Amino acid sequence: MFPVERPRRLRRTEAIRGMVRETRVSTRGFIYPMFVCPGSGVRVEISSMPGVYRQSADKLLEECREVESLGIPSVMLFGIADQKDERGSEAWSPTGAVQKAIEGIRRAKLNLVVMTDVCLCEYTSHGHCGVIEKGEVANDATLPLLADEALSHARAGADVIAPSDMMDGRVAAIRRALDANGFTELPILAYAAKYCSGFYGPFREAAQSAPQFGDRRSYQMDPANGREALREVELDLEEGADMVMVKPALAYLDVIRRVRERFDVPVAAYNVSGEYAMVKAAVRNGWLEEQRVVMEILTGIQRAGADMILTYHAKDVARWLKA
């Protein structure tokens, strides 16, 4: 007890604080999300996400070289389609934007773990994550299409398949398709606890994936539910997922912690577009100190239990850590 116990002794200098620091943010667990579109020579900044671009495979490859040089180990590719239809058939085209981007990264022999988002919302004319039957998103009819998309990514050379659609049974369908086609070693990172969140707005601008009617509450999770997340994670692991994700991160730190404590598998958290955009907007208005706030946010996500963090801040943080 005071005056014998004085916790401030270990906070007195930066050198001491650094030695006893419990959580240390590094680039080792970073995954950098990227948006790839058809065409060539295309690089368009996303208005709500400063510093993030919608770009064609050739331009994306240039940024991937930068990502590699900064020591960021992984990218997550999200595709954008010129031609959309009711089934999202461009998602599994061997000449699709994601497939071409993967092949380009492989030809360049970049030392990056290439992860691919598997979902139909960027490819469907209605903007939902599955096919529509009788005005509803049809779960079981969507599963073989997601499996086809995952398989096309595997054939192009993806390292990790990451289904984000939140259809029941999609991990099992994808695992069966991969295994049946010789991709038994390819891991799955399941968006296991993906909430129906208001923080996705800028992403929908970036991926051009806003639903044309209704919303996604019938398949993405209710933000009020914590115990349900554990059930979703358990089911995805039983179906063959190797890693799991909680999305978004900041409003769901408690969920990250509960998943970390319950399951002995790698846990990812997605520091999503709205979280990124809020920081950028506040910084532009002079309300926040960017480096300090971003590092605090990512420290909090990691402290909650995330082994991997998908974040649009990854390049900035990598530069700050090298400085």
User: How many DSSP H or I helices?
Assistant: 11
Q: What gross morphology would you assign? A: globular
The CATH topology is what? TIM Barrel
Helix-strand string: HEEEHEHEEEHEHEHHEHEHHEH
Instruction: Give the strand tally.
Output: 12
Mean residue pLDDT:
95
CATH-derived architecture: Alpha-Beta Barrel
Major sheet details: 10 strands, mixed
The percent range for helix content is: 25-40%
The tally of structural domains comes to 1
Work out the radius of gyration.
20 Å
Uncertain spans:
none
CATH class: Alpha Beta
Distance between the termini: 40 Å
Structural class: alpha/beta
Beta fraction:
15-25%
Description:
By secondary structure, the protein is α/β, with parallel strands linked by helices. It has one domain: TIM Barrel (Alpha-Beta Barrel). The protein has eleven helices and twelve strands. The strands form two sheets. Strands 1, 2, 3, 4, 5, 8, 9, 10, 11 and 12 form a ten-stranded mixed sheet that branches. Strands 6-7 form a two-stranded antiparallel ribbon. α8 (253-262) links the parallel β10 (243-247) and β11 (267-271). α4 packs across α5. It is globular. The chain starts with 13 loop residues before the first helix and ends with a helix. 46% of the residues are buried.
Layout of helices and strands:
Layout: H1 14-20, E1 30-37, E2 43-45, E3 53-56, H2 57-69, E4 74-79, H3 97-107, E5 113-118, E6 132-133, E7 136-137, H4 139-156, E8 160-163, H5 170-180, E9 189-194, H6 201-207, H7 227-239, E10 243-247, H8 253-262, E11 267-271, H9 273-284, H10 290-304, E12 308-311, H11 314-322
Parallel strand pairs: 1-3, 1-4, 1-12, 4-5, 5-8, 9-10, 10-11, 11-12
Antiparallel strand pairs: 2-3, 6-7
